[in-house]
Amino acid sequence: MIRTKDNASGKARLDGKKVILLGGSSGIGYAVAEYALAEGARVVIGSSHAGRVDAAVAALGTKAEGNALDLTDEAAIEAFFNGVGSFDHLVFTAGDSLKLGEIGATDLSLARRAFDIRYWGALAAVKYGAPRIVQGGSIVLTTGVAALRPRSGWAFGASVCGAMEALTRALAVELAPLRVNAVSPGLIATNLWQNMSEEDRRAMYEQAGKHLPVGRVGEARDVAGAYLFLMESAFATGQTVVVDGGAVLV
User: Fold this and answer.
1) Count of domains for the chain
2) I need a surface site. Which of 66, 88, 109, 175 has the fewest CB within 10 A?
3) In this structure, are residues 246 and 225 in contact, taking their beta carbons and an 8 Å threshold?
4) Which domain holds residue 37?
């Protein structure tokens, strides 16, 4: 992977920085971890599946470490941050498998779980992580374009995404001068769609890609750079950066 040097200093963009990545064992989070490491950072991954954490750390190399962490358990999140010490950037990309469906056919007790990791997990991470972020650091959360362009059957996903956008703006005010931003991906080919059959996934990707201005659905690496931009941009806060292949335009 190419290291992008800072023109003035010759250093990589995140040299010497420590990045906490919750949800970093796969998908977009793993791609962010790869980019951060390539830019000189040290990375700590927290994710619920111990096997995937171990595999990710082994693949990422010696400047990465990881912990199995239940992101629906506030006490576990508090304990995790008590153990990591101070750091520079917190990135939250965790999420469970996406479930779509019309309200009339949905068990609301199951729908509430959509908020458990994506919203409440992120909020707990901010609560316990923010006090440990050093001056000049940042928080980057994750939302989605469902908040801007919902489709039929996306009510719960759109609700979570809308909540995350509002939370990002509110936290940027409350935690200032600590910077808080979010990335809003479009349809990305990751394991969040693992509840679908491979045939159905391929059909969805192909059909969706045909309608996007870029002509395809996204890959995790297409989105990862936005997180790095928000980590290093000292003048960006309260912003949601959309990386969706033009989905909100069509």
Assistant:
1) 1
2) 109
3) no
4) 18-240
For residue 154, tell me if it sits in a domain: yes
Cα 95 from chain centre? 8
Q: What is the pLDDT along the chain (250 residues), one digit of tens a residue?
A: 444 445 455 678 899 999 999 999 999 999 999 999 999 999 999 999 999 999 999 999 999 999 999 999 999 999 999 999 999 999 999 987 666 788 888 888 877 887 899 999 999 999 999 999 999 999 999 999 999 988 888 888 899 999 999 999 999 999 999 999 999 999 998 877 777 777 888 888 898 899 999 999 999 999 999 999 999 999 999 999 999 999 999 9
List the one residue out of 237, 45, 37, 238 whose CA is nearest residue 136.
Answer: 237
CATH number at residue 27: 3.40.50.720
CB 118 within 8 A of CB 72: no
